[in-house]
Every structure is written in C-alpha cells, then in structure tokens.
Amino acid sequence: xxxxxxxxxxxxxxxxxxxxxxxxxxxxxxxxxxxxxxxxxxxxxxxxxxxxxxxxxxxxxxxxxxxxxxxxxxxxxxxxxxxxxxxxxxxxxxxxxxxxxxxxxxxxxxxxxxxxxxxxxxxxxxxxxxxxxxxxxxxxxxxxxxxxxxxxxxxxxxxxxxxxxxxxxxxxxxxxxxxxxxxxxxxxxxxxxxxxxxxxxxxxxxxxxxxxxxxxxxxxxxxxxxxxxxxxxxxxxxxxxxxxxxxxxxxxxxxxxxxxxxxxxxxxxxxxxxxxxxxxxxxxxxx
Length: 287
Ligand SMILES: [Zn+2]
Ligand SMILES: [Zn+2]
Hints:
By secondary structure, the chain is α/β, with parallel strands linked by helices. It has helices at residues 51-59, 108-115, 186-199, 213-218, 227-233, 253-266; strands spanning 4-11, 32-37, 43-46, 67-71, 95-100, 131-136, 142-144, 147-153, 161-167, 170-175, 204-208, 241-245, 273-276, 282-286. The chain has one domain (4-277): 4-Layer Sandwich (Metallo-beta-lactamase, Chain A). The protein has six helices and 14 strands. Helix 6 (253-266) links the parallel strand 12 (241-245) and strand 13. The longest helix has 14 residues, at 186-199. The model has no long low-confidence stretch (mean pLDDT 96). One zinc ion binds next to loops.
C-alpha cells in the first residue's frame, strides 16, 4: 500500500465539552488530533482535550509497547482535560514524551503537576505508570525521526503555540486557539503578515474559527478568531486543505452544517479544500 500521512480529529470543540444531542454530528469533545505516518510506529498527538480519552481507549488493545510524542499548544482546560484519562499512561510498558511551550517561568512538568494536583484530581503525574518525560520547548525547530516540529506564537490569552509538523513532502499547521486581530494597528498588521508567511503553501491548516464576525467584535482579546477573518486572510496562500475548528460549544450541528455549506459555496475561489473539522473525520495525504 502507498504511504500516507493521516490526520484524525478526536475532538474539535473549544472551551468546554458539550455532550448534547444537537452537537453530536460535529462532536462534543474538546481538542485533540492524531497524525499518523504510515511509515512510523510512533504515536504523534497534538492537544489533550477530552477527545484524547477516546484515542487512548482505542489504543489499549495494542499488544506491543506504545511510544509517543504529545504536543500541547497551551494548558487551557479544553486542551488538557483528557490528559488524566488516557489509559496508555497507566501501563508500565509504554513511553511518552510531552511537549509544552513555556508558561512565563513555569515548565511543562510543573504545569501538568498543577493540573493533576490532588485538589483537582486523585491521580498525580508521578502516579502514572508509563515512562513519562515532560519537556518545555521554544519555537525553534526540533527534528525527530521522520518529521520536525516548530511553532509560531499564537495571539491568545496565555503563551500558545501554532505547531508546524513537517514530514518529508507534507506540512501541517495546527492552530486551534489563535486570534486573527480585527483592528489595523501596526502591530496587528505585522502579526497578520507573519501568520500568513507561516501558513503559506502548507498542505493542511487546522485553525480556530470559534466566532463569527459579530461575536468576535464583542469578544476582542479573548484569543479566538472569526471564520470571516480566517477565510479572508488565508485566501490565495496556496493552502491545500483548510479545516475550521475549536467550534463554540453553543454552535449546534444545524448551525455548523449551514456554515460549512456557505463557506464552500462562497469562498471556493482562492482556497483549496475547505470545510469544518468534525470529530472522527480523517484527512489522508498521499506521499
Ligand atoms: Zn481552546
Ligand atoms: Zn485557549
């Protein structure tokens, strides 16, 4: 079989899980994606929202040891809530490396220790049985076997990464929390230019589109984008596949389906394949 890079969405919701019947089509779990390189045995995961739990459940019937790298954009709840519920963390034979950008002066291990301190959860990080290693990392590129990762700082309320995963021949940017500013200050324009250079020509861009323009105008500085800005600012950049994500928990399936049809009919010029990320959806990139 020909080799592929596959992206699987395990959670596409922002802010909080929403297990309501009107959200089940797009899914109620918070942010988590898995990137599968058919040439590699190693797991590659970005963000640990509640979707991360389902991913872990699917992995427990593996007989061999699991090896994986987990990249967390930032430690907001919706990106970490699944972390303690990932069953492979409780098996001694497995090994995971967790990467997080520095939060002021606090590193990855301290952040996770705080998240799992026994005031909030009965299991602390030191009680996980797998071989765990937590690494704080800066935007500079790190090379792993078969791929590299670097990031650009997002515009968000705390230090947050927009990860760029580069495989031989395929590039994916994952930016679930990023505010594309609405104002035209010098700083904002400079930021937009940098962002556009960062995503230019990528094969897949997965980006925050939690709001519409009206909501965004009322929520400037909250750290999220509106779909209108995303569509405008990614036009003509040669992006192969664009997936809008971090859907608002109050956005129903009816609303999101309508939005998807609308952007597909109105914005096809200047864009490649556009759509909304859906829980369970897979994107396959032939190599
Ligand atoms: Zn978020
Ligand atoms: Zn956030």
